[in-house]
Amino acid sequence: MGLQEAINACPAVAILRSSSAARFADVSDVLVEQGIRAVEFTFTAPNVADAIRKYAARKPADVALGAGTVTTVEQARQAVDAGATYLISPSLNVDVIEEGARLGVPVLPGALTPSEILTAWRAGAAMVKVFPASAVGGPSYVKAIRGPLPDIPLVPTGGVSVDDAEFYLVAGATAVGVGSPLIGDACQSDGDLDALAERARRLVANVTRRGRRR
């Protein structure tokens, strides 16, 4: 499944960021069981390409697996070679966007201001990660950006919580990226997977709520 299909099914990208990727696959299994359809393994974890490769080989077909915190062309290549089907960056790096196009995968660069967002879109971004969204007003900022830039798909990330995710969608976001408020301690060896499942259930219910969209 591609990223667009995944977020059509559930407009939330689960961001797995930890000092170790050892539990990323197990955490993803829990998320997927609750209805999440897009997961992101970040390059801040050592050996994340290996984790991507292993999970890509056994994940359900209706799950989109991406690489996050992709800041270099080399990381983009490693991620796609390992099986990532989309790339997400914290910043606007045109080289990464162009490499994603060459590799045939969508790239979601990070941008914040209207100028950065428009530059990212014109450079070939599939969607634009609005980061850090909560630091500049959250849903109200997304709504303000959508006014002059209504045709650019926005994925606000950074401080988005399980309970306020739906308000970003109401404001006009295409999807949301949710990290630590969703994942909690689950990526740690003794992390609570039952608590993760409960948060994931709540997130999926919130972002797929009937009548939520504009």
Automatic annotation (TrEMBL):
InterPro entries named among the record's database cross-references: Aldlse_KDPG_KHG, Aldolase_TIM
Entry keyword annotation includes Magnesium: no
Keywords of the record: Carbohydrate metabolism, Lyase
Molecular function terms from GO: lyase activity
SUPFAM superfamilies linked to this entry: Aldolase
CDD domains in alphabetical order: KDPG_aldolase
Record's keyword annotation contains Lyase: yes
Pfam families to which the protein is assigned, alphabetical: Aldolase
Domain of life where this protein originates: Bacteria
Pathway in which the depicted protein is active: Carbohydrate acid metabolism
Family (UniProt): Belongs to the KHG/KDPG aldolase family.
Subunit annotation: Homotrimer.
Protein name: 2-dehydro-3-deoxyphosphogluconate aldolase/(4S)-4-hydroxy-2-oxoglutarate aldolase
